[in-house]
Protein 1
Amino acid sequence: MRPKILCISFSDIKADARVLRQLDVLAEYGDVTTLGYGEKPDAAAEHLRLDAALPSLPQTVAGVALLAVRFYKRLELAAPAVRAAADLAAGRTFDLVVANEARALPLAHHLAAGAPVWGDMHEWAPEERVHVLSWRLLIKPFMTYVCAKYLPRTQAVTVVNDSIAHLYAQEFGCDTATVRNSRAFEDLHPSPLSEETIRLVHSGAAVPGRNLEGMIQAVNMLGPGYSLDFYLVPARDGGKYLRFLESLASGPNKVTFHPPVSPADLPRVLNAYDVGIFSLPPQTRNHALMLPNKFFDFVQARLAIVFSPSPETSRLIERFDLGAVTEDFSPESLAEALRRLDRPRIAASKANAHGAAMELSSKVDEDTEREILRRLLPQN
């Protein structure tokens, strides 16, 4: 019999590119049951679906009170989505439980009942939204408690890059492997540049704090001959932030908003553009140390890349000569970096992305995950 694997993610898994890639590898080694929001992912044998209205943090009146007085032991399984998840999976046994992000760790260990747990922390858990006052005061100490209690007893821990791995080793003393947000190699070629317009593009979530307005302001500072297209997943705010962005898109250059594209289709859609852009002021350490999905999406789409400064992304942009790094995080700096990236340099950067696409694909990261699975799962 194939091993039984439980994969927990408090996200809409079908829209979560990192978890989808993880599931493809998990399915090579066992029958996977997913536990999260949204519809069943293709790679899952079974899906335990959570009500999207249930929060995965203890955001009830009682939960906030317990956070305030730091009764963390009582909060480990207290969030509404966590309680519902525990009920959905009650009575089942698994050979391995995978917890995506720290908030899933207590539930993962509870459901594992002694089976090994793999914790994919993604980023630096204590400071996920530390720029929000309530998170900084209430959730950060709770996430720190969860990591300190559960990471030492977690058999495998993975994160998105080496800089964040160093933070976990330094703060919690755990051995951590890096699994980047890379994606499978795409058999694409750079698209030719248009004679009239340099086509800028950004893909991601329409979430406040991602500085999408700064990108619109930057493109409006450029002279004629530029366009900016967004492929955005709406936030859970009824479209409020997206409407705000659309209100800014009235400058001299064309700014177009498209519906979101599935992660599998994204590189082929982005391939029609010239430059992938992202500028994010570092409100948290996760922002400062970012190495996001979109970087690898842009590489596989064979785009030139312009990002704001970050140790991980800047290193790769410079190493492979993929485009440019802005001087700072302002719209003015983004506009200036784009002006300096003339057509010959854009064409060369797109060609360099093509040359680096295999090395920056997910093969290395998938091999890291396979090594973890071979170590943790019973051998057939």
Protein 2
Amino acid sequence: MTARYNDVYRPSDRDLLKRTIRETAARTGSAVFFAGLVNRTELTITEFFGTTTHGLKNLSVQPGEGVGGRALSQARTVGVADYFDSDSITHHHDDAVRIEGLRTMVALPILVDGRARCILYAATRERTSIGECVVTELSAGASRISRELAIRDEVDHRVSILRVVQSLAAEPPDRNLIETVRLAHAELLSVASTTTDPELAQRILAVTARLEGSEAASAGAPHLTRRETDVLAQVALGCSYAETGKRLSLKAVTVKSYMQSIMVKLDVHSRAEAVVAARRLRLLP
């Protein structure tokens, strides 16, 4: 079976959770942490730090069940001072919690476009407060994950254009399709330049290379650096130096410097000529 593009290019969302709970544990030096992704409406707990048993491994939690299920259904942070004495939650998963010996617990939903996509937990084995520091760090981690998931979702959307390109490759050129591909290419480069996840950036660049047809670039074509290609792709959309800089987190004067280098390499005298030359040489889609 042919792999779907997002299967190939999207990094593991579980790794985001794993990294976040480990970093939070390292910063706070306390508590037990665990987390899981939400598939449609069901949460499955798969990532752990500080646990000593397998009681919670792959535990499925429905909306409204326990601390995490309540956080999932209400899309807000939920905590209990003593899990077993609390009458504010259901007790569907008491056995799993008891095996691990947990008492105090807090669950934070990670929201993307208003929908819970993951749940992060912090817990202790004593009846005590989780601590403001732990909750603050966990909240910051949840915000980072939310932003990264939003970026990954947008990349998936852009990459889906590749399927359209492949299915229509044998048909006569479609001007609207070509412009859509060029827009997607520029947007993907912009995302790659701003994401904080290096693995995701590399996977995005692999996609853009396919859109560019880099492997089939004309013989003798000058080499543009990755950053020069980023800049030229935005300029090709009609962006000014200031707009290009904003999209790529660069200063306008830096963008101008890149364009001057590009024009020298392509032996042209204007931005418009640079775009035409780059497309002729298959350096841009």
Protein 3
Amino acid sequence: MTDSRCFHPVFCTIVPPHLLDKLARAENPAVAGPARRTLVADAAQRTRRRLTTVVGAPAAALPTEAAAGRPQRSIHDAGHGRDLPGRKVRGEGDAPGRDATVNRAYNGLGATFDLFLKAYARDSIDGNGLPLVATVHYDENYGNAFWDGEQMVFGDGDGEIFLDFTLPVDVIGHELAHGVTQYTANLTYFGQPGALNESVSDVFGSLIKQYTLDQTAAEADWLIGAGLLAESVSGVALRSMKAPGTAYDDDVLGKDPQPATMDEYVRTGRDNGGVHINSGIPNHAFYLLATELGGRAWERAGQIWYDVLTGGELPVDATFAEFARLTLAAAHTRYGEGAEQEALRKAWSQVGVPLAVEG
């Protein structure tokens, strides 16, 4: 079932602008040049998204009755240009081709579709069989991946800092999860609600990877974008849900700025009020919940997050505290008083998010 509220698509990238700003100032032109080009391309897409919000997006293709409950994927090749969606190179049911990037995008869309359908009975990201469209080989040395409100787009990376953005399946899942948020809670992309928007995508991106690998919460690495950074970079991923602030510490890339608790909450006007930075706090709360409950994280822990996202009670401008209180309510509705409630209270307490209503 889809949410009836009016939604406003936003342009969401996996690599935050503050990180690209850092790279754009690098002494090495092989790093700075692609970062600057990526920033220009991202700025153009943000402008396009704002205009689309004003004039209206083109109608999406409707699913056929025969395809209900099955993915409808189409992968396109931008040929290192910026025109979207580009030339179609693989459709639903087509055999794999020679382009590994195309095949990874196709499989990642399928993995995301499978998790939402099988774990949460959600038919595609809108709940109504929305076709999944992705474009690969976007622009030249493009160092990002994004959801533009209508489709997924992947860059090939610069080879110096970032590799192919289809390599980590959680990056694919992260961006498509922005679409799920768009069609449900529609969280405002600024400040705490924006950080929740990013965190929800990290949560489901990680769950998609765990689901694909059939991992328990204890077996998972809880990294977002592992395998994306080039070998020369001192780091393991873009973000760590297990230990926010430790994903990278590199002379060129800088140090991971994510806080794990409210004591280190970052107040900034950059990155839409720190949406990619402060998302570390709810990310860590989810990690603590999932590992406390044990087993497969997409089951109980993921179900609670999904219930909050789709329950219709989450305000578009929700704070961390409002989200936390709704997780308790959702867990009580589904599981009653028990281990889930205790684990939630413990997790939110450890990251410093209050559950009691402050007077």
